Amino acid sequence: MTLQIQDLRVTAPRGVELVHGIDVDVRPGEWFALVGESGSGKSVTAHAIGDLLPVGLTRTATMLRLGEHDLLTQGRRNMRRIRGTEICYVFQNYAGAFSPYHRIGAHMAEALRAHRTTSSSAYRSTILTALEEVGLDPEATASRYPFQLSGGQLQRVVLATAVMARPRLLIADEPTTALDAVTQADVLARIDQLRTRTGCAVLFITHDLRCVRAHADRMAVLRHGEIVEQGGVAEIAARPSHPYTRGLFAALPPIDRDLDRLPVTQQGA
After folding, report:
1. Which pTM was predicted?
2. Which of 9, 138, 223, 253 qualifies as a cystine partner to 131, CB 3.0-4.6 A?
3. Contact 194, 163 (CB under 8 A)
């Protein structure tokens, strides 16, 4: 199920345009990265897809479709169903997704009840399976409160909750923010495994080009609300055509740099 975006624009009050007519296709089973600095319009674009823009922002597009669904014409009830079953989000503020008063299993059951009517035993089975798929101890995790888990574990719970519905499109909006490098790598590897297992597409919002090079198939570079370059990750990394893209890749410190030869700043200089 392909996500098709043509001439997407997001406008703030007084006619200030934040996203300027972007065109993107995300294919089934593909990991597509939307890259750019803070304020470039990445998250605004992600929110516009699922009709989650804050009050005051409006979206227009020539086309905004997921498979057979025209995302521009859906009513609130239909859009809510699509968001919970065919489009799912993983946001960067994983801690804000939980109430400290409810156990993890209760949080996940609430998400299931919002979109599926079935027995309590079926809910439990789905929850435990999803937790196991992201590498957590199912029984122990479901019985714990959010404050009893680490940041990386909470983000994996968010991922498990998102993929319980087996969505066609997973939108991951900087999902590894505030995680250490080892935990970050683990969370991204889990997303990749779930993409392979379920066949869902991943729209990955990030400013981290190392993650893009490690996981993404294609990418689009966003600057000031406009796409300045788009294509295969390997091709763009090898031969970036836009000066902004060249600057982003040039800013990456090489892993194999000889640290003994780096310049040393003298004390007091």
Report:
1. 0.88
2. 138
3. yes
